[in-house]
């Protein structure tokens, strides 16, 4: 991934051409990506998504993240409503720098964490100079 591949995103609804069996908006989750020496770490903000309703797929170098939210019943008459319930969807193209077979995922407090390990060939290494 390069700097121009990544762009700052705010929570916005996705307009898709496909039809869905769920009648809820589809949002792009906010994401932070950090580079470490041996991996990339991706944090995706998906409030209201339980761990069992997260789907992560890797297919043809495409990493797809989906999260489904179940709407809670109203506790009364809404006076102000800023939070919209909806599902989350985001897709990334992975380069050969990532070892796709070793991707790990965890979820805590509505934040999905993916650890994308770098392939051995992409990891930095030191070369020792030997005397002749």
What does it look like?
This protein has 132 residues and is mainly β. The protein has a domain at 27-71 and 82-122: Immunoglobulin-like. Helices cover 0% and strands 37% of the residues. It has no helices and nine strands. The strands form two sheets. Strands 1-2-7-6-5 form a five-stranded mixed sheet, with no helix packed on it. It has a four-stranded antiparallel sheet with strand order 3-4-9-8, with no helix packed on it.
Query: Stretches where pLDDT falls below 50 for ≥5 residues?
Result: none
Rounded to an integer in angstroms, the radius of gyration calculated over CA atoms is 19 Å
Write down the CATH class of the domain at 27-71 and 82-122: Mainly Beta
Global outline: elongated
Which percent range describes the beta-strand content? Answer: 35-45%
In total, the number of strands is: 9
How many H/I helical runs? 0
């Amino acid at each position: 991934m390069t700097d121009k591949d990544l762009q700052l995103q705010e929570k916005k609804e996705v307009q898709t051409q496909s039809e869905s069996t769920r009648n809820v908006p589809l949002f792009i989750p906010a994401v932070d990506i950090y580079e470490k020496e041996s991996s990339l770490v991706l944090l995706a903000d998906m409030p209201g998504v339980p761990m069992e309703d997260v789907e992560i797929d890797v297919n043809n170098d495409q990493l797809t993240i989906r999260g489904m939210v179940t709407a809670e019943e109203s506790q009364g008459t809404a006076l102000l409503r800023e939070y919209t319930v909806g599902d989350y969807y985001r897709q990334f193209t992975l380069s050969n720098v990532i070892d796709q077979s070793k991707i790990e995922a965890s979820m805590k407090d509505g934040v999905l964490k993916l650890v994308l390990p770098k392939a051995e060939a992409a990891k930095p290494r030191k070369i020792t100079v030997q005397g002749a």
